[in-house]
TrEMBL record:
Protein origin, superkingdom: Bacteria
Cited SMART domains: MoCF_biosynth (SM00852)
Protein name, UniProt field: Molybdopterin molybdenumtransferase
Gene3D superfamilies linked: MoaB/Mog-like domain, MoeA, C-terminal, domain IV, Molybdopterin biosynthesis moea protein, domain 2, Molybdopterin biosynthesis moea protein, domain 3
CDD domains (UniProt xref): MoeA
Taxonomy of the source species: Bacteria, Bacillati, Actinomycetota, Actinomycetes, Kitasatosporales
Amino acid sequence: MDVCGTESAADRLWTVDEHLDDILATVRPLPPLDLQLLDAQGCLTVDELVSSVDLPPFDNSSMDGYAVRVADLAGASDEYPSVLSVVGDVAAGASDLPVIGPGQCARIMTGAPMPPGAEAVVPVEWTDGGAGGGAVAAMVAGASSGEVRVFRPAEPGAFVRRRGGDVRGGQSLLPAGVRLGPAQLGLYAAVGRDTVRVRPRPRVVVLSTGSELVQPGSPVGPGQITDSNSFALTAAARDAGAIAYRVGGVPDDPARLREVIEDQLVRADLVVTSGGVSVGAYDVVKEALGERISFRRLRMQPGKPQGFGLLDGTVPLFALPGNPVSAYLSFELFVRPAILTMLGAAEVRRPTVRARITADLDSPEGRRQFARARWDADRGEATPVGGAGSHLVGPLAQANALVVVPEATVHVAAGEDVEVLLLTE
Ligand SMILES: Nc1nc2c(c(=O)[nH]1)N[C@H]1C(S)=C(S)[C@@H](COP(=O)(O)OP(=O)(O)OC[C@H]3O[C@@H](n4cnc5c(N)ncnc54)[C@H](O)[C@@H]3O)O[C@H]1N2
Ligand code: MOO
């Protein structure tokens, strides 16, 4: 408060929505890039996929068997098989095809082109395979010429996969903005594309600050704690679709932190720091970046102190609070939407559902609380795990959702209907 008792800019508490709106108004999708198919996995496309080819590219057989003329098999049965003369073999990839005349057929393999004159395929199991006995279970070696007895008639087009029956040249196959998973990448390859235009994965650098931090695997001295934030946040960035680099344990020295950030900027589309943003004597991130990004306090619990801005007017930097639960939830609520925006996603927020809460919950007045919970989709229930403390990493690892308690609510009773934000969807 200033001397007149009015709220100054520094005192102002931002709502969660105001902070997110500021982020979404600032962060832009990355410029598109042509990538090799497998480098684009998980990215969102920029263009619609229009096929320049027919698939299949030619009429072909869906079975190992014989390519036949339909009239030759009229009335064929076990008792009165049709006897055809076999004029050749057609394997997948064959280009020199025999012409099938009346009374003739060719052995044909799955995927092989239909030879001219043939109208259908009979599977080998409906023939004697040229062996002169009853029906066989598979192609008989060396019977590519001679005679074959066929025990059933054939419909025109039976077991023939038609040219263009799957995909037509000129057809629109996928709209822009599709996430490239295995089937979509397979489709690009199937229509002959070796590259695809996408928004690339943002490169995210994750930095942990704090002179008290030691890296996992090292001995922990008095007053020290293990750096867990850089692991959780790097994993969360990858989960959101980013390429993430972890830089653990920058000490509480503003000059050193500025130096590390400058070094990291060569490989960063976005930077995330944790720790050093509150009001202590060693709040290194605030000291190092106070002039370059905006530090603010939110009507939120956990996650009250936050820093956000563009470094050099281009690279978004998120200065998240150091408490592990605060850092992780801040990432979920603010950094993840920024990464998804850079990827070009239309929907950047986690989904929410309504559920019945199974236990009482207290919440601070004037702050939106995000309580860790286990959500049971079948029962439509959310069960809080652990308490409100933002150092509680044990229960955080049990949670798959957050119960959202509005700013004006100070108590929720078991059995009430609440909003639940799903962390795993
Ligand atoms: N007088 C006040 N004190 C605090 C306030 C306040 O308003 N007035 N806000 C509290 C809130 S809320 C939060 S959140 C924290 C934010 O603190 P910092 O961002 O400055 O974080 P640190 O002080 O560096 O660390 C806080 C806590 O988290 C642990 N930590 C830090 N980094 C890591 C890491 N990489 N891995 C695991 N744990 C980490 C650190 O040891 C501290 O215990 O400030 C409150 N104080
Ligand atoms: O806001 Mo702090 O993030 O409550 O622990």
